[in-house]
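Q: How do we represent a protein-ligand complex in a form that can be generated token by token?
A: Start from the inputs.
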Amino acid sequence: MQKESALLNQAHWEKQYDEGVLPWDSGITPPEVVAFWRSTFLKDEDRVGKFAVDLGCGTGTNVTYLASLGLHAIGIELAGNGLAVAQERLRQHTAPMQANTLVSSETNVGQEKMGSQPDVARRDILLSRVALIQASATALPISNVDPIYMLDIGCFHTIHPDLRAAYAQDVCTLLAPGGYFHLYGFDWMEACANDPQKTPRGFHENEVAELFALVLDVVEIQRATASPHPCRWYLLQKKEAHSHLP
Ligand SMILES: C[S@@+](CC[C@H](N)C(=O)[O-])C[C@H]1O[C@@H](n2cnc3c(N)ncnc32)[C@H](O)[C@@H]1O
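Then emit the structure tokens for the protein with S-adenosylmethionine bound:
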């Protein structure tokens, strides 16, 4: 346990939030995520009232987006001060939330339902659909919610290689059969692995497919614009045969 908490490097992440060094925090849901929800991967009737989980949710931009689609959205984040920012933003920014929502989910059933309601009611509906939990994605404190979608933008690729199997096990167990795991990560960065000041970062060539192979199928892997490092989007789907792992 002691070794695990050292590998998690929570202090590093909390320092980033304390110092406001958040180069990833664009406040915008990536087009790849919006495209997924505009696609036919999941039908409207399959999504409303279902759960989605954002692992390493940071300041909550994408949890808010998922809730705006009519999903119950759970954000998991290791850094307590990152979550505090997420909570504050959720409480405060009704207007930016609406702007983001309208751009990204025109065709969505949950969004249509909210469309005719006054601002305060909209905000309350969104708030009621969001849960933010401080925890490690390598030891998820949730079960039996059967999420149809799990998202990870830039968290898993920073997790120490010794903890990646635990993370993969949790995703495989939690995700509903037929549900999707959507992941963004850098390619493996050898320079970080050899620098004692830095945490190992990125994925080896077939690492993602191999970590999840028994339970999830790879649907697609797309190379993304390097920002600033070579990176990819991975979309995996849980095999229907795996109703639940033992
Ligand atoms: C690069 S940031 C991305 C944040 C967010 N996904 C976004 O796109 O804005 C990585 C996030 O993962 C969080 N994190 C790192 N290790 C984690 C772990 N083991 N469990 C949960 N969150 C973790 C960090 O605190 C940080 O907020």
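The chain has twelve helices and seven strands. Residues 94-116 have pLDDT under 50 and may be disordered.
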